[in-house]
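Researcher: I'd like a candidate sequence for this fold, 262 residues long. If you have to choose between options at a position, lean toward the conservative one.
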């Protein structure tokens, strides 16, 4: 009789522990799913948002001067004789640089114009700016980041980005638009790999290069590349789904049972 009661108490305690473990696991999984979902949503929401370059002004699609905010994505501000680029509500826009006048009344700002996918009107100017910024990136890595892990490999890939930008900007392609598009596609893939490698690198602060930090350089390079690809009519690989969606009603199979212990 005592043995039977002991078994009952043990079974009861085991049941309580099991229920408690399952409850704890469910709660932990709920927190994880909530955190993952919010993180993915936040990542999607912040795609193309300028976080390391702030304080510039833009002309809205209606031609009004506005302070930059997060509805404007992939922003490339005016610089010297270059115009500005951004995306707004999934449309790409270009604002020409304001004409310089020595005297007289101020010249009215030009209204941003939509960029056509594959229009081939801006790629040379965008590649010129990307060339200059990629050169600054390589110099920054050379002077300040050689102590980081995988430096040689990462620098080699960053230099490939520079060479691809030079190719698009230069005359070596002899007007071969297919060669330009192929170069842009490979450039995009290499750049995003470099961007991922540099995310956690630290600087030795030996010599400042340019007016941007490393993170800000990468951010503007990404924006330049985004508009360059659009103007060339090239869709990034990460915008293309790797395969067809599963058929409606398809149910995932259960996990395999654990292998028996030897």
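Model: Candidate sequence:
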């Amino acid at each position: 009789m005592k043995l039977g009661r002991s078994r009952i108490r043990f079974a009861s305690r085991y049941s309580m522990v099991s229920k408690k473990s399952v409850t704890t696991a469910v709660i932990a999984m709920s927190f994880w799913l909530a955190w993952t979902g919010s993180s993915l949503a936040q990542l999607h929401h912040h795609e193309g948002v300028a976080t390391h370059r702030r304080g510039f002004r833009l002309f809205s699609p209606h031609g009004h001067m506005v302070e930059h905010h997060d509805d404007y994505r992939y922003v490339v501000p005016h610089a010297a004789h270059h115009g500005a680029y951004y995306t707004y509500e999934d449309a790409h826009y270009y604002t020409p640089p304001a004409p310089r006048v020595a005297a007289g009344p101020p010249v009215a700002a030009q209204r941003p114009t939509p960029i056509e996918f594959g229009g081939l009107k801006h790629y040379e100017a965008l590649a010129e700016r990307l060339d200059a910024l990629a050169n600054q990136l390589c110099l920054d890595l050379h002077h300040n980041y050689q102590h980081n892990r995988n430096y040689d490999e990462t620098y080699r890939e960053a230099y490939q980005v520079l060479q691809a930008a030079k190719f698009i900007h230069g005359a070596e392609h002899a007007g071969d638009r297919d060669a330009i598009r192929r170069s842009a596609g490979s450039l995009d893939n290499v750049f995003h790999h470099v961007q991922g490698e540099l995310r956690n690198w630290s600087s030795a602060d030996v010599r400042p290069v340019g007016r941007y930090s490393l993170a800000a350089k990468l951010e503007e390079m990404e924006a330049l590349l985004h508009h360059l690809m659009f103007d060339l009519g090239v869709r990034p690989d990460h915008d293309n789904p790797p395969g067809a969606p599963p058929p409606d009603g398809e149910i995932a199979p259960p996990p395999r049972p654990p292998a028996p212990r030897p």
